[in-house]
């Protein structure tokens, strides 16, 4: 299946999301609503959620590396990225391929539009989380 969006168009779409500063509770509710519209893609997965003030990205990267080295299939979502957006989403220690990112963005667009119609715009972080 060929993507309708190019990688560059997908990045433009991501970065064009509204710059909403949501409170913790509102951000959680909106993210849950968005994930629900996407069919709750994380349901059934074993997930480690790392929280705290500092060092989350480093801790997540180290844990992902250890699990990958032990033969486990891993996915890593970190924020912010350092050099390139694709650093945010990694599978088995490798950045998401450009065409895969474009396809995922396409698959989220209906849910993003539905959220907007409901008066719950999706900011960049929530979209990235849904990818």
From TrEMBL:
<keyword id="KW-0436">Ligase</keyword>
<dbReference type="InterPro" id="IPR018109">
    <property type="entry name" value="Folylpolyglutamate_synth_CS"/>
</dbReference>
<dbReference type="GO" id="GO:0004326">
    <property type="term" value="F:tetrahydrofolylpolyglutamate synthase activity"/>
</dbReference>
<dbReference type="InterPro" id="IPR036565">
    <property type="entry name" value="Mur-like_cat_sf"/>
</dbReference>
<keyword id="KW-0067">ATP-binding</keyword>
<dbReference type="GO" id="GO:0005737">
    <property type="term" value="C:cytoplasm"/>
</dbReference>
<dbReference type="InterPro" id="IPR001645">
    <property type="entry name" value="Folylpolyglutamate_synth"/>
</dbReference>
<keyword id="KW-0547">Nucleotide-binding</keyword>
<dbReference type="GO" id="GO:0005524">
    <property type="term" value="F:ATP binding"/>
</dbReference>
<dbReference type="GO" id="GO:0008841">
    <property type="term" value="F:dihydrofolate synthase activity"/>
</dbReference>
<comment type="similarity">
    <text>Belongs to the folylpolyglutamate synthase family.</text>
</comment>
<protein>
    <submittedName>
        <fullName>Bifunctional folylpolyglutamate synthase/dihydrofolate synthase</fullName>
    </submittedName>
</protein>
